[in-house]
Design a protein that fits this description.
Blueprint lengths: L1 H17 L12 H4 E3 L6 E3 L2 H19 L14 H6 L7 H9 L31 H18 L11
Helix pairs in contact: 3-6, 5-6
């Protein structure tokens, strides 16, 4: 009797977890958190949930091997948190600037072209993961990068202490 009960519970749990999860179960990120800078002139935009999810997927597929949790594998002093993006020259704290960087990457101080070292769309021959990214993909990725610090706070790019 006990064996049947346990087996029944296990079978029920198995089938419950096989049900498709509806969008109603997805966490809605409020609009204020999804509002980010569009340009360096102060224009803003609201990143849609769909754009955020697409940017998250692209980040996981393309960027996370070097920028896991917003850190930078090759330079731990420069992360993808808000203050570091703002402190770059030119500042990379808006969608247009991040898209420009993903097309033509420069050092943090803006002095040197690093397109041979950082994945970008200009040198897709070196970085095949960037080959098929559209302008919309780059914008979605940039939107994700700007929203994520608002969600995770100091844990985004914070290193081992916070992750």
């Amino acid at each position: 009797m006990l064996k049947r009960f346990i087996l029944g519970v296990l079978v029920t749990l198995f089938f419950v977890f096989q049900l498709p999860i509806d969008k109603a179960f997805a966490i809605e990120i409020e609009e204020g958190i999804r509002t980010v800078k569009l340009t360096d002139q102060g224009e803003t935009t609201v990143v849609s949930v769909k754009q955020f999810e697409q940017g998250k997927r692209l980040f996981g597929d393309t960027c996370s091997q070097c920028h896991l949790a917003g850190r930078t594998k090759t330079n731990q002093n420069v992360t993808l948190n808000e203050s570091d993006l703002e402190g770059a020259y030119p500042p990379r704290d808006n969608i247009a600037a991040i898209v420009e960087y993903l097309e033509n990457p420069m050092t943090y101080d803006g002095e040197e072209d690093i397109s041979e070292f950082h994945p970008n769309t200009t040198r897709a021959d070196l970085y095949p993961e960037m080959r098929n990214l559209t302008q919309d993909d780059l914008k979605d990725l940039a939107g994700f990068l700007l929203v994520q610090p608002k969600i995770q706070g100091i844990m985004w790019g914070g290193g081992k202490v916070y992750n």
